[in-house]
Amino acid sequence: MTAATDPFPRRRTLRSGRELAAAGLADADQAALIDRAGEIFPVAVTAHLADSMSEAVARQFVPQEEELMRGGAERDDPIGDAAHSPLRGIVHRYPDRLLLTPLLVCPAYCRFCFRRAHVGGADAILSEAEMEAAFAYIESHPAIWEVILSGGDPLMLPAKRLEAIVARLSAIAHVAVIRIHTRVPILDPARVTPALTAALATDKAMFAVIHCNHADELSEPVKAALRQFLRAGIPLLSQTVLLKGVNDDAETMAALMRALVANRIKPYYLHHPDLAAGTAHFRPPLERGHDIVREMRGRISGLCQPTYVLDIPGGYGKVPAGPSYLEANAEGGFRVTDWQGGVHAYPPQGGEAADIAAKAAT
Ligand code: SF4
């Protein structure tokens, strides 16, 4: 893969081991390793990230040596996008919705990225003709109720380009919902401008899903950027990736979920990390995710609970991956475990059947 460049640059982004070391984000003796990792998947750290780097944030963006190792079960297309891509820029996995990826460029590159084999390459932007073919595909499939703009990051597009895409999708009668998946407000909040949020104006239902992995990412400039979406009437949801060494303990995860809700962002998904090549050092066991979900249940508001999900390798889709609180019992009912670990029968046993109407009449 050739080194990525930002096709619409605004601010200075660090892209080499030497630059990261000079900024104090890596040791000088890590520079060569970072450059080797960058040959496989581009390195990019925005000026905003460099200014607000904590340990949890650095781990997500500064390559580690483990990244150069591919695990046996890891793959270039971990969630099987290719099997559901009828044409470039479209992933149509489920009947009523599809993914439209106008570009595969991001402001910074997360080292655990599940599309790391494709994101940030030289051929990362759809041509006009490819976009037209994608729109024609959506128009010719009346079952498509929701279009998810993803990438890369669709908010890397200039406002005018984005406005044209939103207008084109809005004009398709059977498309009721447009959902944008973005990390731009977190990675480079200065990109969020009134012109950008105005470009998202539509009579259709528009949602933005913000990828955020640690409360440290919600700095003041980020919060100000997020408020611009809310002022523009765009509801915010979040998605988080469970990452070893970043957020894989209940306290850190709960703090993130609360911070999201306090900033009017409803936690939507907590993803188990996909089997992308060179990402094993980020992947905790599923049991760790179960522990975290169990520990959060009941202890923090229901508003703060995301759905823990796993994408089945091979393209078979997403499934809830959280622990089960119900288990069938021998009486044809269930054993239910409450948030404190107490076990109960459902329905409760021992009640006498009675005629409610006869009782009411006496
Ligand atoms: S923002 Fe998303 S698509 Fe871009 S590098 Fe990070 S995980 Fe990958």
Tell me what the structure shows.
The chain has 362 residues and is of the alpha/beta class. 28% of the residues lie in helices and 18% in strands. The chain has two domains: 69-320, Alpha-Beta Barrel (TIM Barrel); 326-361, no CATH class. A nine-stranded mixed sheet has the order 3-4-5-6-7-8-9-10-11. The chain has a three-stranded antiparallel sheet with strand order 12-13-14, with no helix packed on it. Helix 6 links the parallel strand 5 (146-149) and strand 6 (177-182). Helix 10 (250-262) crosses helix 11 (286-296).
Strand content: 15-25%
Q: Please tell me the total number of domains.
A: 2
> Which small compounds were modeled alongside the protein?
iron/sulfur cluster
Class by helix and strand content?
alpha/beta
- Number of helical segments? 12
The number of distinct β-strands equals 14
Helix content: 25-40%
Summarize the biggest pleated sheet.
9 strands, mixed
Distance between the termini: 82 Å
Overall CATH class of the largest domain: Alpha Beta
CATH topology of the largest domain: TIM Barrel
The order of strands across the largest sheet is 3-4-5-6-7-8-9-10-11
- Elements, N to C (H/E): EHHEHHEEHEHEHHEHEHEHEEEEEH
Q: Specify the overall morphology.
A: globular
CATH evolutionary superfamily of the largest domain? Aldolase class I
